[in-house]
Every structure is written in C-alpha cells, then in structure tokens.
Amino acid sequence: MRIRKAVVTAASPSQRRLPLQNLIDRDGRERSVLGILLEEIVQAKIEEICIVICPGDADVYAEVAGDHAGRVRFIEQDQPRGYGHAVWCARDFIGREPFLHLVSDHLHVSRDTRGCAAKIVSLAEAEECAVSAVQATREGLLTQFGAVGGQRVPGDDPLYRIDTVLEKPTPTEAEQKIIVPGLRAGSYLCFFGIHVLTPAVMDLLGEHLARAGDQRISLSSALAELPTRERYLALQLNDRRYDLGARYGLLHAQLALALNGHDRDEILSQLVELLAQRDCPANGSEQ
Amino acid sequence: MSRLAGIITASDLETRNQSLDAFCREASAEKLLAECEALERLRLERDSLYERVRSLFFLSAIHRFHLPGKPGVAEQGRVPFSGYNHLLQRRFVEAIREFLAGQKSQGPNNSISSALAAAYKGLAFQTLADQVRRSVRSVRGNQWMFRTGHPADAPLRICRVLTEREAQSGLYPVLREATPVRMDLSHSGWSDIFFLGMDYPEGARVFNTSIDLAVLGSAQAVPRPPVEASFRVIDEPLLRLVSVDLGASADITSMAEVFDYGRDYLGLLKAAIIAAGIVPPGMEGSGQSLEDLLARLTGHPGCGIEIVSRVNDIPKGSRLAVSTNLLASLISVCMRATGQIRNLSGGLEESDRRIVAARAILGEWLGGSGGGWQDSGGVWPGMKLIEGVIAQPGDVEYGISRGCLLPRHRVFPLDEITADTRRRLQESLVLVHGGMAQDVGPILEMVTEKYLLRGEAEWKARLQATRILDEIIDCLRRSDIRGVGACTQRNFDGPIQAIIPWAANHYTQQLIRAAREEFGQDFWGFWMLGGMAGGGMGFLFAPEVKPRAQRRMGEIMRAAKRSLDRAVPFAMEPVVYDFTINERGTWAELFSGSDALMPSAYYSLRVPELVRRDSRTLSPAQRRELESFGEACRREPGLAGMVHHLFDRLIPHAGATASHTSGSLETLLAAHGFDPVQHQKIRADLRGGRIGLSQNRLPISSRVEDVLPDDVIDARRPLPATLLRLGQDAISEGAVAVLSLAGGIGTRWTKGAGVVKALNPFAKLGGCHRNFVEIHLAKSRKTAALFGRPVPHVLTTSYMTHAAIHDSLTRAANYGYSGPLLLSPGRSIGLRLIPTARDLRFAWEEMPQQILDVQKQKVRDSVRAALIHWARSMGEGADYTDNLPEQCLHPVGHWYEVPNLLRNGVLKRLLDENPKLRYLMLHNIDTLGASLDPALLGLHIDSGAALTAEVIGREVEDRGGGLARIDGKVRLIEGLALPDERVEFDLSFYNSNTMWISIPRLLDIFGLSPADLGDEEKSAEAVRAVAARMPTYVTIKDVMKRWGKGQEDIYPVAQFEKLWGDMTALPDFDCRYAVVPRLRGQQLKEVAQLDGWLRDGSAAYVESLCAW
C-alpha cells in the first residue's frame, strides 16, 4: 500500500483563521501554521494535498501555503454539516486510495527527527490498513478528544488493534466501554489528530450522511464502525500535540516549537529574565 | 477437617446448605470450642467473602446461642474493658484477639462468649459493608469519580443547551426528570439484600413493578410519577439545593458543605450530586473551591447549578422505595445534564439505567442509608423480574463473591403479561400506607444472619418463597389475579413470618382479619410491600368491590390506629392510594423559554424570600423568572391559588398555633402536679453548670470495687427446700403482691416516639401478639392458679402511661386477669429542657460510644454538630416546648413510682383488702422473666431484710452500672454515677431491677405507719424527706418530633430523674443481693434484641411462666 494523498480539514468557522497565523518554526524560520503542517505532510512523502475550507477562504490560504503551494488543492465545504462531512467533501480528490488526514488546528511536535505524520504513514503502508495516531490522555481531558479501546498487538511498537471508538466520551461512558490493557487507571488512548484512512471510511461517511438528513456527522462515528469492516490500528505516540484553538494555544505551541529548536537557549533565557523581572522589586531595577 | 468448616467450604449444595443448629445441639462444649478454633483459622485464611462471612456468623451464633449453658462453660466471667473499647471503636479484629485471650486465661464462660458473639457479628457485618463499598466503587463508570480531586481534573461539562439562556425570556432551560416508584410483589424472602444477591444469585429474585401514585381523596386526581427532579443553570456561583416537599433549601458555596450530609434535610440531594459526579466523591476534603468547579462545569465563571426535588404526597415509610427512586431520579437528571447519559430527554437505554442504579447504590452508601438492589426499580418501565447475576471472569466481583453487585432486569413484554392482566391487577389492588414508619434495618440484618446460619425452618421457608414467586409470575401469565392474592397471602403467612416473625405485627393482623370478616370471599389476599408490614401494604379484592374496599380500608385502618396509637408508633394517619402501572420508567423533559419554570410549590417556598429582599439585589435571571412566574400565574388555571399560598407563607399564622400549644402544655403541667419551684432550681443549676452529666458521677476519690463472694447469694443453683416452702406458704396466704413499673415510656424501644412501651404488642406468645402488661398478668394468673389464691398486681403509671394503660385494660377486660389489679398513678412530672452543649459533648464525645461504619459515622457526626448548634440557638437549659405537649414532659424516674403508692392510697387499699400482705415484688416492665418465684421469696423472708435485689452475671451488652462495693458498702450503682466507665467492667453483676421489698420495713424508712397511709400531707412530707436523700441525675434522652408526611426528627433533651436502686445506698435500709439466672433477670430494651430473645430460649422460658 502506498499513500500519496493527504486531506487537511480547515473548514470549522470558529477556527478558520488559525492556520493563517505565523509562528517561528524549529529551524528559526517564520512560517504560517499551514506552512508548518504542509511541511509535516510533505516529510511523510505525500504528493498531493487537499485542504477542505470554508467557502471563499482559498485565496488567503494559498497565500500562506509557502513552498508547498503547488501540491495543494482547495475544496470548499458548502454546508456546515460537521467534521465527518468535511472529510467526505474530499471524496473525489481521494478516489479509492488510502490517504493521510490531519486537522488544521493542531500542531504536532516530534521528539525525534522523524515527523509524526511520517511515522503513521510508514506504519500504515507496512500494515496495509487504516491507522490512527493516539496518545495516552488523562480522563479529565476526555471530553475534548475521540478515544479508542482495543487490544495490544504483540511486537515492539506500541500498536493496538482498535475495537471501540467513542467521540468525546464522559469518563463514565469510557470506563464502561473502553478497555485498553496495560494503560494506567484513569488514562485513555485519545486521537492525536493524525490518521491514515482507507476508502472504506469514505463509504461509511457517505452512509452516515445519507442517514443523518440535515444533521451534522462526526468522523468518529464512522471510525467507530470501521473495525467491523476492516482491520484498524492505533499507534501510540510519545510526541506532543498542541491545540491551537485552546486558550493560549498558539502561545503554547510557539513555546514548544522554540524550546525544541535552534533557539532553545535564547527563549529559555528570555523566559528566565521575564520571571526574574516579575519577582524583582519595582524600584531600582535596571531596564 | 472440622465439620463446620467442611459445611462452609463444600461445593455441593446439600452439604453447603446444612444448618448450624442441627450440629450444635448435640455437640459438647469441648467439641464446639474445637470447631471455633477451626472456624477462626478458616476466616483468617480464606479470600472468599462468603467463606469468611459465614465463618464469622457461625462463630457468633456458637458463642451467642450454643456455648452458654453447655457443661464446661462457666456462668460467670469478666469481659476485658480494652476489648470492649475496641468493639466500640469497630476494631473488631483487635477485640476478638483480646476476648480470645480472656477466654484462654479465664476458661470458657458466658461473659466472654457474649463479647465474642458481639465482636464476630460486628466483624461479619463490617466485612459485608466493606465489600459492598468496594464493589460500588469499582463498578465501571464509577471509578473515575474517586480519582478526581481538583476542579482542573473535573471532566464533566454541562450540555450547551442548558448553559444558554433563551433570548426572549432570559431564562435558563429546566431539565425535569419524573420517576415512578416500585412495588414488589415478592422479594423471595428479602433476597434483594446485597449480600444475598452476591452470595446466592440463584435465589435472589424479585418481582418489581413501576407505579404512579395519587393519594385517594387528595387534590391530585390522576396518578402520576411520585418523584421529580429538576436541574438548571443559575447565574450565581453556588449550588442551590431545594427540597420542595420538605420545605428546605440551601445555597451551598463551599466544598465541605456539599459533603456535610446531616446538616439539614438535603442529605439525599447532596448524595445525588456527588454520586452523579457533579461534585465527585474524590473532592471530599480537598479544600478546593466549589466556585471553580461550577465555573468549569458550566463553562461560565460566576454561574452555578440549582437542583430541585419533589415528592408528590407520598409519606415516608411507604415501602415503595421513594427515597431510592428520588435519588435515582436526581442522579439521572444530573447525568443527563452532564452528558453521561446520551439522551437529554425521554427514556433511558438499558446501559444508562444500569449506571443510574449503580450510582443510586453509591448515593445510598454516601448518605449512610441502605437499600436493596431492587429499590431503584422505578427507573425501569412496567413489570420486571430482577435477578442476581453469577459473577464471570472479568467482573470485579469474580473470585470474591459468587454473584455480582448489580442484578439483571428482565422487563416482561406485553405478550407475556398482557395489558389486560395489568389492568385487572390495578382494578383489584388496594394500595395503602398503614401509618407506621419503622426502621427496617434490624430486619435486614436478621435475614442476612439467618441466611448464613441456614436454620432448618428458615431455609425451608426461603426455598418456599422462591417457589411462590414463580407461582405469582405464572398467575400473572394466566391473568389469574385471585391466584396472585392467594400467593401473596401465603407468602406473608408462611415464609416471610417463618424467616422473620417481626415482619408482621398486631396492627397488620388486625387489618387482615377485618378485611376478611367484612369482605369474605371477595378479599383475595394481603400483600406485604418491602421489608416489613405496617407502612406500605396491599390488599387484593374482587374488582367489583374495590371502590368500597378502598373506602372501607381507609376507615378500618383509621379505627385500628385509634385503638392502638398509644401502643404502636404511628408516624401519620393511614392513607389509601390510587395507582397505575408506569410503562415507561424514568422520563425527562426539557422546558425552555417561558415554560422553563420550576414546580409551583418551589415558588411558594422561594418567592417569599425573594420578595422580602431589596429588588436591586436580585440577579437578572431571578428578576426575569419572577416576571415569568407572575405571567404564568395569570395564564395557568393550575396556579390560580398561588397568591393565597404566597400570602400564607409571607405572613404565617404563627401566633394562634403557639398559644394553642403552650396553653395545653400548661394545662397538662397543672394537672400532673408539676413543681415549678423545683423546676426553676433545676434549670438554674443546669445553666450554671452545677448539675450535668459529668456531675452525675461519684467523686473520683470513691473506691469502687467488685463485690466479694459472700456479698451475694447465688440463686442460680436450687435454693434449700425450706426457703421454697417458706415462699410457697407466703404466696398461698396472700403475703405478696406484684408491682410492675409501667410509668416509663421506653425511649429506647421506640426511639422516643412517645408510645407506651408496656402496651406495645411486640411478640407472638400463645398464638397471638401480646404486650408487656398482658404477659406480666399472665404470669400472675399462672401463680394464682398454682397456689389457689389471687395475686394482687399493681401497675405503676405516669402522666404518659396512665390513661392509655387504663383504657387498654378496660377495653381488654384486664386481659382476662381475675385477681386484684390496681393502677398506681404518678404524682410527679418534669418539663424537659434543651440540653447544654457541654452535656451533649460529654454524652457524644467523652462517654464510650459505639462508632458506626465510616460513612454512617460521618453522617451521625454531622447531625450531632447540627444538634449542638440547635441547642445553642434554642437557648441551652431553656424549657423544651417545641413539640406536642406530651413530648415536652417527662416522668421523673422510677424512684417515685414506689413512694407514689404511699401517697396515692394504693398501698393503703392493698393492705386493707389483703391484711396479710407483707411483701412486694417490684420489677421493670421489660424484665419479662421476673415471676413470683417462691424460693426467692422464701430467701427474702428468711433474711429479714428490707429489700432483696436480684442481679445477673454481667455480659457484654449489660451496660449501666451494677452491684459494687462503694467505699466498702455493698450497693447498687447506676452506670451514669460511676466515676470511670472502665470500672463497670470490673463489676461481676448487673442490676436486673427486680426487688423483693418488705412493706413494714419500707414504711419504716419513710417514717410512716400503716395508719399514716391515709394522711396525704404526712405521706407527702415523708416522701419529700427521703427524696432529698436520693441523688438526682441529669440524663439526655431522645425525643421524636413528627412533621410533614411521616417525617421524624430526633432531638436530644435533658431531663432529671431519681432511681430506685439508690435506695440500697441508704445506711438504714438493710439490703441483700441474690444472683438469679439470666433468663429471669434480663431486660428487653431494644426491638433489635427480639430475634435473639426468641432464638436463645428466652421467649419459651417466659411462655412457660404464663397462663393465657
């Protein structure tokens, strides 16, 4: 299985400006969030990228796409019918191929030189099935993420065969329905925001849309059905993800990028200086 | 291997179900002690809950019922105080260790065995409670709540639809859950007790039906779900809890207050909030901010939550599991609001119902109450069979107990039990509340114990109950409602009473008899609801007579109550319900816009408070809500009378009620010889700290020692024949009369309910329920028949008991007693006082106390803190007048009951009518074994003493003083006068309060001659002079205050008393002491003692003394 295409969703009306923000990346270069995302995708050897956007956003997105603008195609989500519908909008672009999928309001920072998306893509190609990146998340944050349950696949990789997917469950529901052997109590495997999905997912989304009428549909509801149709794995990553839409999300992501990159020492000393100034008495301090 | 350990560990049912009694009856003491050692090892080694608990109950029963009386077991021993202290503190393992060491050093004896029995039983129930707690916490879906200790970790969010105000009305939406209650056609011998379900899942089966209710004759004509819970967001950073039916509300702003269950009437709502995860139990003691948590939950800093509960007209003790279903309703609405249940409105999925039921069990545990696993059955729709589930690998209970904590519910479809059958059941069943609200807890403990001991008769009854359940289902499938009535009646007459005789009572039997007499063949059967009869009950009739039966049953119940209401604790007037089967279970609706209002009764409670406030301090939401409510009052016909209601609440008619109460109190005081001067002195002394609980005690310098062997005569062995003859002759010639002390009200018997204990028909003897008076008269009847001479019998009475006893004797024609029967009315009365905080602390913190299981103790501590606050706010040492007038008065101790004979002419009359009368046998009303024993009378006559007191060998439950040498003088001492509680455990003998008194010597000590008895003034002066020599004790007693619909509050009150035993301290009153068998001297103080009393042969002994 070879994965050549990627779909990025950026059509949420409340978060459509996030990918346009500028950050300093790990190499010290100023880039847009979208640019950083595209870099991550391209590192995973993806050739064609589709970004699902709100109607009318194509021009501004194209402007900030940077070096990889040539690989990008924009598709507009004409009705706000949910996350699942946004992915489904890329069905013609995808055809019957597997594809990489990322959300545009998260940044992923790998602990090593290999990008997070690249790890998932290479695993999916090796295992020839859908794979979602997941991360152990404490139960207090469960209501922000989709969560999965399943059995560990023997081997070195922290790989799980998914049997249950719940969208933003309460811990009450998660405790009853999600079992993941080996995970500490109160922790669950939650989506990291990177998936490799198969055409079967598009089929499921289509079925859900047909059933939902005018209602919104989620991607998780389709993923919840996927294990009944085909093999579906989860790879547990120890890397970091940053939700840019959260309060101070951009600042948090920027600090994480800077502290993981070339300018680490500079940022650290600036932080120390900030703290020192805050704690020093106002009188007599040097500017 | 030991035989009993073999029974416990056997896997085949036949061996496992063998009875302990059968084995122990034949076994020698030596063999039993060897078995005890084996059982002790078994309980320590095994992991299985069932094996540990059954070993413990076997051990308890062997020590309680089988070892005492066996050759080789001494009658007398000493209970180590340190072990007793461990027992009180619930350190059962340590207590057992101490008692076993005591048994080793002293040899086996009754005293140590009684202590071991109590410790093993305590540990058994503690083990069960711990396991239920562990299981409740480890149910999947509950675990996370115990890990969440900080608002930042709180994972729940209130659904957005509830956190956004509707633009036009400005009101937050209201989510309202309406839940039916449940009635059980049969619980197969209380098989819904958690432990039974977890140990014997095959036998744990309940037929349970969800019903809507209306009280017949009330304003609400159509039955509807009796409990409701409403939830909404408010624009104040607090948690507002309102119980509409209890008229209570609280604005909670701190985390600690949420966990303070006993502080007010809102404990159930708090337990629901916690069990629903809104404030997770892990937050307890965290010191975190409630405001932060509410901000996180609502997503809006400055916002909070309001939860309102309402029970529609259903009184407490209905046996319909109202409180559990209200808890479930509250939990369900909170779980819906926080997305833990997918459907915000409408019904619930099966998985949701199960988690709500699990949370309700958690809530019951948090609130310190208990219930069976079927109680939240109202959450499910219609008729269902609830069954125990065998634990499988993967279940948290697997390997620990045979069954799971949570049962399985199988809802009967309409093609199995048809709609027509359900309608016919409704047309036949008259559902009532008999008016009694009893504590079912002791019954459930008895059932658990009996299940594990496998008593032959009880086990057979359990199996029969299971078969009857199948028959009931079969009848329903065949639409045979008459058959259902026959089954439920057979269930009540057979297995239920075979397992627990106390489930039935005189009142219920009277109702059944009346129904049968009046309706004959049209009365199809009685149906006991829940744990015991007397509260919620069912009577099945032919459908054509149901309307008449509904009306008549109301009348029959009211008449029966009138005839018994001084003898049986009724909480309220009986009511008849109208009911329908609820086929949809718990159901929620979302109200928004101008419909987003709370129940109308909520506004009766809240609006007066809001109206009294400055309108500028009302929040915008409150203002809008008042506007909307005002509009609704104009619009809705159902709210038409609201203005009157509000006026009544704004300006209550307090004056009229208060003057009425105080007026009748004054009348009562005047009528019963209240001494205001003495009262004022006592009140001033109490307030000034000159008297109080700590001042009851003898000086610490007093030398308190156990008596020497020669200080007592051991009458447990046969006394010489000469004494027997002497006594027989005295009885034959009419030299002795019986004096039964019936002036007290038996506070512990009914927890301060104010009924007359002497008249309480508490047990079936000679085929029907008998009260204490009747039993004592039956003994005198037998003595009279034996000696061919009538025995004069005197019942002393007080203001509380006289009229009731007099009426009861008149109605029952002296219970057929043909001998002289006199009542000796009391001449003294006291007015209860609000206790001082100092005395309450002394009673609750310094005196040895039985600590409760952890959560119950927490609730009790919280209640006690509230009561100390109550005492302070009411005024320490002030007169207690906030209750029915009779409940504000108190008898002043049994010392006065003997001198009253001198003042009220009863002794004069006795002597006039019986010139040879020289002796009195005085005994407490609850010393049922006391009889005119000729040998003991001979002993007393022979000694020439003024008084011979009977004492018994001390066992662990005998608290309250005993026989001692105080500074060298042998005398009886009250427990509250002992300088140190540990001293009591060095005293070998306990006072039975049965005394033989020589009348001439009695008159001597009062300085009176028989001729003086007619002189009222002289007698009164003589009594006053001796009274001055008697110590006055301050005591704290519980008094019950009833309000609302069957609600009962228990308040501590201070009163004073003088006790007859202190006569033995007078140097010029010659007293002797005889040790008598326990069966003769023991007293029945609490209802919980009854089962042991029946099982250990005491009841049979009493019956052998009686002639009916």
Structure description:
The complex is a heterodimer of chains A (287) and B (1108). With 287 residues, chain A is α/β, with parallel strands linked by helices. Chain A has a single domain (5-279), classed as Alpha-Beta Complex (Spore Coat Polysaccharide Biosynthesis Protein SpsA, Chain A). Chain A is 33% helix and 27% strand. Chain A has helices spanning 33-43, 58-64, 83-88, 91-94, 116-127, 171-177, 199-212, 219-225, 249-259, 264-279; strands at 5-10, 22-24, 30-32, 48-53, 72-76, 99-103, 106-109, 130-138, 146-152, 159-167, 187-197, 232-236, 240-243. In chain A, strand 4 (48-53), helix 2 (58-64) and strand 5 form a beta-alpha-beta unit. In chain A, helix 7 (199-212) packs across helix 8 (219-225). The longest helix of chain A has 16 residues, at 264-279. The model of chain A has no long low-confidence stretch (mean pLDDT 91). Helices cover 43% and strands 16% of the residues of chain B. Chain B has 41 helices and 31 strands. In chain B, strands 2, 3, 8, 9, 10, 11, 12 and 13 form an eight-stranded antiparallel β-sheet that branches. In chain B, strands 16-31-25-28-24-17-20-21 form an eight-stranded mixed β-sheet. Chain B has a six-stranded mixed β-sheet with strand order 6-5-7-4-1-14. In chain B, helix 30 (802-811) links the parallel strand 20 (793-796) and strand 21. In chain B, helix 12 (267-275) crosses helix 14 (322-337) and helix 14 (322-337) crosses helix 15. Chains A and B meet through helix 6 of A and loops of B.
